[in-house]
Amino acid sequence: MLRVILAFLCFSITFFTYSQVRISSAEIFIQSRHVWRGSQLGNDIAIEPSLTFACNRFSFNVWAAITPDNSYSEIDLIPSYSFNPFKLSLLNYYNPVHDDVNRYLNFKQGKSRHSLELTLDNYSVEKKRLKWMVGTFLAGDRNQITGKSLYSTYLETRYPFTVWLIDVEPFAGITPFRGYYADKFAVIHTGISFGKEFDLKLPFKVPLNISYISNPYTQNNFIIFCVGVKI
Fold first, then answer.
1. 190, 174 contact by CB (below 8 A)
2. 54-66, pLDDT tens digit by residue?
3. Is the pLDDT of residue 202 over 60?
4. Residue 11: phi, psi to the nearest 5?
5. Looking at residue 22, which CATH number applies to its domain?
6. How far apart are CA 105 and CA 108, in angstroms?
């Protein structure tokens, strides 16, 4: 895992050093709970800022999440390459643990807070049509008994459309085999979201969203409220 993380960091440094980078987006969201792929992470509202840099087909996103009660925190570095209508991304998830020793550059097995996932999607396409993504963990995702990588994989589809000026997006996600998400093939993330972005004639926009999320595998259900500011 050390080699993979170091290669990731070298790529990131090179991207910033030799590219004519511009800020393409900046936003912050507040969610009633942070639910990721059918699982709730944290026990409080989640504050989630995001900043994206871009240069031609390359982009680099810095994303974070924190809960006021310190039950969950996360910092992600995400370089991506777009080749319409697809985007290839390498996600470096960093998940420090509250009241424990957390060192960002500690990559030792069993002590590192990092994990890496490679994803491919067509979410950036503007047309209202079927969208999909697939992601597989490459590092930091191991069987606790054998120590072998699980290569946990997630596949998701979305179909956005508009009704009465409201953006509607049903979605469904599965894992095809045993891994982080489930002990077998399972449907783990289904639901529908309703959202609208308000333009208040200010330098920023205010998106509002409400989602119903269900995890048929764990039989958990969530209703998530979200409000944000986008520049």
1. no
2. 888 889 999 999 9
3. yes
4. -60, -45
5. 2.40.160.40
6. 9
